[in-house]
Known about the structure:
25% strand; 6 helices; alpha+beta; 24 strands
Amino acid sequence: MKTIYSISFYALTAVLVLGISGYSFAQNVGISSNGTFNPYDNALLDIDGAGGSGGLLPPRLTAAEQTTLTTAINAGTASAAEGMLIYSKTNDRYEMWVNDGGWGWKKIMTESDLGNGFITNTNVTPGQQVTADFDIDGSGQIGTSLEVGSDLKVENGIVVGDILTATPGNGNILMAVDDSWIGRGSGLDDPRIIFDKSPTSPFTDENIKIYPNDLLYVELRDDADGTSSDQIGLTIKHSVAARGPGIKLSGTRNIAGNKVGFLEFENYDASVSTTEILGLIAIENQTDDNLNGSFHIDLRSAGVQQERLVMDASGNLNIDGKFNSQGIQETSDARFKKNINSISNALSTVMNLEGVTYNWRTEEFPERSFGERMEYGVIAQQVEKFVPELVSTDKDGYKAVQYSHMVPLLLEAIKEQQEIINSQSQEIGVLKASVEAISDYIKTAEK
């Protein structure tokens, strides 16, 4: 082997030429500023850069100089072998003279490519790759030799599936089979994930979008057939019969009155391009000990969202409005009851109650669903004085009467009243008999 020590450029060139041509029998040539350097056995030329002594510089040409060289090569006045290397000062890149469908310069790598960490493959049709070149296996290997570290940066996007005319855009992933997107949009409020349903009309019939501020956004568009199935925005199916599917809404513990989770119903008015919330189904933490939940339904009424139904943790249901039904059944089985006693003094209690007619104060309570017509009923405060068990008070201090539970009291009052009537009827019968006897006596005395 040959080892050449630090010498001048001209001397190096002469020695290199002589070393290669004059000693062709040598296995390899080494160039070094260090006398202890041993070139690699299988390298024809091995340059040692130990100690930061320098690097290898190919010819550096401007665009004009490169054009002059190309013209000379094509004219035959200058020769060039395939693989000749230069550095383009104009393009800031290495270029090589190759025959790729015609002789010319092909870039190796640009300075910007090096700075941004990109390697550009120009050996295949844009948008395509040789099979398995970009297959990533479970160990993080791409193909058979390229390993992905902690970061993989994609600037111009990735297309998965058959190539369409649409491009993925900067940093996006396009599922070419159904035009679904991950990372679509450049604005802060643009969707980040879009699942489309119409591959023939890209990006016009999005079904599901995921925005930065919404976990999941589902948008339905009209289809040509207009079938009812097209109006189903989300279907959750459980294939096991033993248990049905569900949706879990999980939130951080809230104090009483705050919503733990809710479903909001929104309607779009195309005539004025506005969207309003028409209803809300929610679960609230009934007490701030996080042990009791309450169920709420809010509905929009006269432009204002109002609470219309509340079920507390005990199952008590409060409806703000009239309840219409073909019948109401209340649990009354004797096996559920104890301390059963007859109602006493029912008639005297009922005699203290007052039935009234009234109208609701709709102007003062617009949030309530009060009607305008005259009503029949009782006053809760007046009933509470004599039968407090029939009156309940809500969290805001407003009172309500269990009208259905007044029936047993009225029933026993009617029975007491009937006993009085029966007793009085007997007395009247005796008096009537006495009157008739006296009348007969008078008639006999007159004769």
